[in-house]
Amino acid sequence: MTTTRMVFDVESVGLAGEGFAVGWVVLEGDTEVDTRLLATPAKHAFGTADGRAWIETNVPRRVWDPSPDDGIYRPTPHASRNEFWETWLAYGGRSIELWGDTIWPVEARFLHQAVDDLRCHREMGGPFPLLDVTTLFRMAWARDPSISKDSPPDEPHNPLSDAKASARTLLMLLKALDIEP
Fold first, then answer.
1. Residue 3 to residue 25: CA distance in whole angstroms
2. What's the mean per-residue pLDDT of the chain?
3. What is the pTM of this model?
């Protein structure tokens, strides 16, 4: 049986701020079957002035200030979280693996806010277990210190690009650990 995995990445206004962009890759085994990037203007997400300054310097402008005419545009962070959640459910919800590169704090906060957005329906149905590529890397590295997590994104701090890099790393690690992709 082929395992379905969803690998996601979030950009937020500072490490403890609100996520304004999310990207994901859905894998069936080692085959990419879906990718998506959603972005809300960062000015609509809460966070610190330092977080906003970092975004403007490091995140591609198209991600932190998307045009309403761009297919990635969503009007609010809530809309992005809801679409992410509904996509995760459409692919199987808790019956699939949900992965992030390093979950804490940004992706964890994003998921927590998604639950808060519709607590009466989502409180008991969140992703479990939530899986972390960095933890898997540490396990593989303990077994073989020559393993490298060197799969840089094509466009750093673009959540879709980061999610694709994490998916490549995940598949490499699963193979290195003799786990079926």
1. 14
2. 94
3. 0.95
